[in-house]
Design brief:
InterPro entries: DUF3857, Papain-like_cys_pep_sf
Distance between the termini: 63 Å
Protein name: DUF3857 domain-containing protein
Keywords: Signal
CATH topology of the largest domain: Immunoglobulin-like
Largest sheet: 8 strands, mixed
Radius of gyration: 30 Å
Organism: Pedobacter caeni
Strand content: 35-45%
Helix content: 10-25%
Number of strands: 36
Length: about 650
């Protein structure tokens, strides 16, 4: 992914300027007759035209600058699958003292019926506001009277009470677009870092000087009017194994760098890491909480009573915090309730929990630091200059000898030293109370590993009976432990597993190490499946791929412009030994397969043999890289296609004549 960073003297022009908006509901017969083949024959809906403007405005009532953003779009619906485009959700940020205001919503559905255009306007009573959490909300509505061939059109304004992140613009979305235009008018007093990201290129861009677009304290201010246009934009299709879609969609983003004061002074907004370090260490809800060692002074003897070295001390402290402070469901780099209160109430956000962990590790005389990061869903971190709003998560880093361990006590069931996959996202910034901060690679310390072993016998009454044994460690163990926790009991977990195994019944089960997080999860099942009817001539079909079968290719695009990001390497092994009666022989079997990805990126092996009345089957799937680049995508897609074809075949054996 390439990023183009520009330091521009921008700022917003008045919406009353020469912005090229289009007439509301002014559709033509060409719009009605337009087919999806013009851009994407698979499209269920398509943006015909969209236009947005953003400008800075001085709010006299509040005495501060705000961003005034307008949006207008016209969309053609081709079929019922495209009706989803008629469900509109406008996200809003909620601040401690203010919130984004959604205003002037206008919406209409236009249908061409019996040679006439018929309009159905949105009833204002059917606009709903919803608070998702204390940080965000959404304004929602559904377009009326949708049918195949409808054209929907809507517009709205948003008043944004913060100017640091100027309103971004996404050229790409989940449906293709014929034309997208964005006008950003920014006063010359303000300098924004502007980034153009994504694989698509601008069709055109233009910069104009607009005189006296804004008055501040009676002083006229000139603006830069920036126009960005993109045409014939393909839909952005989200697929499995990716980080935030915002990392890859073609878009324009703005971040305030500095601004000039009317008296001639200049104030920098983009800080150095030295500035950010000082702010975080001094911040009551961050650095001050890392220093709360005294909160654990009386608890520490009990926590450390069975420890013998620094590693066992760190593990004991980690287990104490993990078990005694539960997540309230909110994430963030700052403490919301403070360490002492989180200990008393046994609940907190990620900041409360992991800053408490750092303080407790320090109380045990261990070298502990904080690592702030951006989760995979939140987006990438700007490595060129510090932007604190890029970070939404904090974990602990404890240094023991030459080894460092990343810890997240806010996520249940994580073994010591393993971060949740949602934290494996590029680099994090290590914040130390006494030393300068530094970047640190966020890598998975363990792979996603599972091993299966099935030893069974084909009995004379036509049943296949045996023991299925599995070992799951790393992220595979974490996923299974979560499934057990969600099922509320092991019995319910086994019952759900039994339901998924079509044609197979479980008679006994045993699961070990559910609570021993640093050990593999071991599952033992006595299972039975039908082989044949003993009263008839038999030909037995046995699919050795019934364990962890891959039935659907996760990669289906003709081209993928963003990486396949697994987060960690993966390995699955399967071994089967099936003893059959002496009068049975092999009639057919899957062809042995050995394929690999370039540069040791992964491999798949499967082979079958028959000796001394025992069918031996072995299978190995390895994905050795956490990230595969777009140019490796088609090879990965073909790799999975061949595996799926192989796994459709059976071992066939029958009675010898």
């Amino acid at each position: 992914m390439k990023y183009i960073y520009l330091l521009l003297l921008l700022i917003i022009c008045s919406v009353k300027s020469s912005a090229q908006d289009f007439k509301f509901a002014g559709i033509s017969h060409e719009d009605i007759e337009l087919k999806n083949t013009v851009l994407d024959s698979n499209a269920n809906a398509m943006v015909l035209r969209e236009f947005g403007t953003a400008r800075m405005d001085h709010d006299e009532a509040y005495g501060k600058l705000m961003i005034d953003y307008t949006y207008h779009v016209r969309i053609k619906i081709f079929n019922k699958q495209g009706f989803e485009a008629g469900n509109v959700a406008i996200p809003q940020r909620l601040y401690s003292d203010d919130e984004d205001q959604v205003l002037d919503i206008r919406a209409v559905t236009i249908n061409y019926i019996d040679g006439q255009f018929k309009q159905s306007e949105l009833d204002p009573k059917k606009i709903f506001k919803e608070k998702r959490n204390k940080y965000s909300g959404v304004t929602k509505f559904t377009m009326p009277n949708l049918m195949d061939g409808s054209i929907i059109e809507y517009s709205y304004r948003i008043r944004i009470p913060r100017i640091f992140n100027f309103r971004s613009w996404e050229f790409q979305s989940g449906i293709p677009k014929l034309y997208s235009e964005y006008v950003a008018c920014i006063p010359g007093l303000y300098n924004y870092n502007v980034s153009l990201r994504g694989a698509q290129k601008l069709s055109s861009s233009n910069a104009e000087l607009q005189k006296e677009c804004l008055r501040l304290n009676g002083t006229p201010v000139d603006c830069s009017k920036m126009t960005y246009i993109m045409k014939n934009i393909p839909a952005f299709i989200e697929e499995d194994y990716m980080t935030a879609a915002s990392n890859f969609k073609s878009a324009i983003n703005f971040e305030l760098s500095d601004y000039h004061l009317l008296n001639g002074g200049k104030k920098s907004v983009t800080k150095t890491w030295k500035d950010v370090d000082y702010e975080l260490v001094s911040e009551n809800s961050f650095g001050s909480q890392m220093k709360k060692k005294d909160a654990f002074k009386e608890l520490m003897p009990e926590i450390l009573k069975n420890t013998t070295d620094e590693l066992s001390k760190a593990q004991a402290v980690y287990d104490f915090i993990r078990k005694n402070i539960k997540s309230n469901g909110f994430i963030g780099i700052y403490s919301e309730t403070a360490v002492k209160k989180a200990l008393e109430t046994h609940v907190g956000n990620t900041g409360d929990i992991n800053l408490s962990l750092i303080a407790a590790l320090s109380a045990a005389n261990l070298d502990a630091e904080a690592v702030i990061l951006s989760t995979r869903e939140y987006g990438e971190v700007n490595n060129l200059f510090p932007v604190i709003t890029d970070f939404n998560y904090v974990v602990a880093k404890v240094n023991i000898g030459t080894e460092s361990y990343l810890l997240d006590a806010s996520t249940p069931l994580l073994p010591f030293g393993l971060l949740p996959l949602h934290c494996i996202n590029g680099k994090g910034r290590v914040i130390n109370l006494k030393k300068p901060s530094y970047w640190y690679d966020l890598k998975a310390s363990q792979k996603d590993y599972t091993r299966y072993n099935f030893v069974a016998t084909l009995t004379k009454d036509g049943k296949i009976k045996g023991e299925l044994l599995s070992y799951s460690s790393g992220y595979a163990g974490l996923k299974k432990r979560r499934s057990i926790l969600e099922a509320s009991s092991i019995e319910e977990y086994v019952e759900k597993f039994d339901e998924k195994m079509t044609g197979i019944s479980i008679s006994k089960h045993e699961i070990q190490n559910v609570d021993s997080l640093n050990l593999p999860l071991i599952e033992k099942y006595e299972i039975e499946m039908s082989g044949y009817n003993s009263n008839s001539a038999v030909q037995v079909f046995f699919n050795p791929f019934f364990i962890d079968n891959i039935s659907k290719n996760p990669f289906n695009l003709n081209e993928r412009t963003y990486p396949v990001d697994l987060g960690t390497s993966r390995e699955t092994r399967c071994s089967i030994q099936l003893r059959v009666p002496e009068d049975f022989v092999i009639a057919d079997q899957p062809k042995d397969l050995s394929i690999g990805l370039a540069e040791n990126g992964g491999r798949y092996l499967s082979n079958t043999s028959f000796n001394d009345h025992v069918i031996n089957f072995n299978q190995l799937l390895q994905l050795n890289k956490p990230i595969y680049h777009p140019e490796e995508y088609l090879s990965l897609k073909e790799f999975y296609s061949r595996i799926i074809q192989t796994q459709k075949t059976n071992i066939v054996f029958k009675k010898a004549k």
